[in-house]
Amino acid sequence: MKFMKAVLTSAVLFSMSQTAFAHSNHGGDLTLQKTENLTLAIDQITDFVIEAGSGKLKVIASDSDSIEVIAEIYQRNAHNDYCLDLKKVGNKAKLESASCNHNRDTRIDLTIAVPQDLHLDVEDGSGSINISGIASLKLKDGSGSINIRNVKGKVEIDDGSGSIDIKHVENDVSIDDGSGSIHVRNVSGKVTVSDGSGSINVNKADSFELLSDGSGSVNVDNIAGKVIMDN
Fold first, then answer.
1. Mind listing the pLDDT tens digit for each residue in 183-212?
2. Beta strand pairing status for 164-169 and 106-115?
């Protein structure tokens, strides 16, 4: 918990520093205008739904009993025409983060600390995704790189474009990918892939099945059970 607080505090201080000096975003025309902090206790919550638009998404596990969100709002000019809300809906927590009213000059970068036993259901528009230490993951992504680490349950990914890198999953992994390289390592369960284009590399899994592959190399090593290539 102390480590998580340190991570979150550092992120806030870094964001404040960026705001004070009005740094532009990676050479683009969006500037960090504001940082918001949201917290929700997880009493009787088992699932966490994230609906994010444009921006980076980082989710890390903590030993806390709450969800803690740091949202960095990048805009050309400061305004409040964006959506950002964290609330409880039944036995689920729901985070909405996006531009509103078709306003495209806002990007929201999210750093989220979650309890380790939460199941994540994420729908993301664009931007890099880094997730580690959670119970299970269902992810639908438009574009941007995806990095997944240390998941106890199943991982399901439906991705438009961008590289996918997955390590250390204690259950099955299924990937439906449009384009971009795929790297999967150290999976205790079955790995299933349907791919449009891009290389596929799977190393150390219980079994592997390739449902479809448009183009790109396929490299499979250290599979304990069956390897099925239906392409």
1. 999 999 999 999 999 999 999 999 999 999
2. unpaired
Rounded to two decimals, the pTM is 0.87
SS3 217: coil
What is the residue extent of each domain of the chain? 1-114, 128-231
CA distance 72 to 144: 18
CA-to-CA dists, residue 144 to 39, 126, 162, angstroms: 26, 6, 5
Residue 164 has pLDDT above 50, yes or no: yes
Output the six-digit token pair for 48: 């966490």
Residue with tokens 């799977």: 202
Q: Which of 43, 21, 42 is nearest to 32 (CA)?
A: 21
Element (H, E) at 18: helix 2-21
CB 168 within 8 A of CB 184: no
Q: How far is CA 9 from CA 6, 14, 23, 149, in A?
A: 5, 9, 20, 23
Given its phi and psi angles, is residue 105 left (phi above 0), alpha (psi -120 to 50 degrees) or beta? alpha
Q: Are 98 and 125 in contact (CB under 8 A)?
A: yes
